[in-house]
Amino acid sequence: MTGGSRGIGRAIASALVAQGHQVAATYRSGDVGEGVLGVKCDITSAEDVDQAFSTVEKELGPVEVLVANAGVTADTLLMRMSEEQWDTVIDTNLTGTFRVVKRASRQMMRQRFGRMILISSVVGLLGSPGQVNYAASKAGLVGLARSVARELGGRGITCNVVAPGFIETDMTAELPEDTIADYIARIPVGRLGSIDDVAASVAFLASESAGYITGAVIPVDGGLGMGH
After folding, report:
1. What's the pLDDT at 149?
2. What is the predicted pLDDT for the residue at 29?
3. Which residues of the chain have pLDDT under 70?
4. SS3 state at 227
5. Which of 5, 22, 133, 166 could pair with 27 as two cysteines, CB 3.0-4.6 Å apart?
6. Taken in order 143, 147, 152, 156, is the CA torsion positive or negative?
7. In a domain, 55, yes or no
8. What is the pLDDT of residues 114-159, one digit of tens each?
9. Is 134 a catalytic residue?
10. Strand ranges for the chain from DSSP E
């Protein structure tokens, strides 16, 4: 998986380890959890991505499950957004995911088996002021996943999207209380999500039980984005 050093990514890696998978996770800084093979990788570099996969294949064998979680933000209002802020977010969140999906598909097609799970966001479906770049990158993952699902489904490969809503992380913990209260008021279940909520959904999609699910967008958002 990509982006496994903290928050949602770290929780997903732990859930997959608990499910019995051999798990490798890329990171740019920090470390990875217990039982996880850490591989330093910048997904904006095709060379880095290829090297990371080669390392994982050598250490653990062919990749059967890909979780594309790595992402960045560069939030600002549209009129203030620079070309660089746009390019950085799109290149990491969307093009970076394309790079890892393409590289993973090589072995999955040979094996005639694979699970691809792309981590999007409710923002990609609802939109968000100040996040034109981020929302566009996360919405793009839906088109990418559904195209891959149609293209590779006959080879035993599924490709799905998980779209988390407002999840309780270190980042949300720093927000003002009134901002959190405003978020909660908009969520039908009346609470923020947990990283374990997201991890459980990913673990299910990675399992044998999800073999007939592909091209789906699974919202993990407490009902915030229903109907989208």
Report:
1. 98
2. 87
3. none
4. coil
5. 5
6. positive
7. no
8. 999 999 999 999 999 999 999 999 999 999 999 999 999 999 999 9
9. yes
10. 23-27, 36-40, 65-68, 114-119, 157-164, 217-220
Other Cβ atoms within 10 Å of 103 Cβ, number: 17
Question: Is position 7 within any domain?
Answer: no
The pTM for the full model equals 0.96
Annotated catalytic residue: which of 27, 134, 183, 212?
A: 134
Of 46, 5, 50, 54, the residue nearest 25 (C-alpha): 5
DSSP state of 77: -
Note the pLDDT of residue 170: 77
pLDDT value at residue 159: 98
- Strand arrangement of the beta sheet that strand 157-164 belongs to: 65-68, 114-119, 157-164, 217-220
Range of the domain at 170: 64-220
Alpha carbon distance, N-terminus to C-terminus of the chain: 27
129, amino acid identity? P
Sign of CA dihedral 130, 141, 23, 26: negative
Across-strand partners of 119?
162
- Domains: count for the chain: 1
* pLDDT for 227: 73
Within a domain: 35: no
What CATH number corresponds to the domain at position 178?
3.40.50.720
> Distance between CA 103 and CA 83 in Å, rounded?
28
In a domain, 95, yes or no: yes
The pLDDT score that the predictor gives to residue 42 is: 96
Return the percentage of the chain with pLDDT > 90, whole number.
90
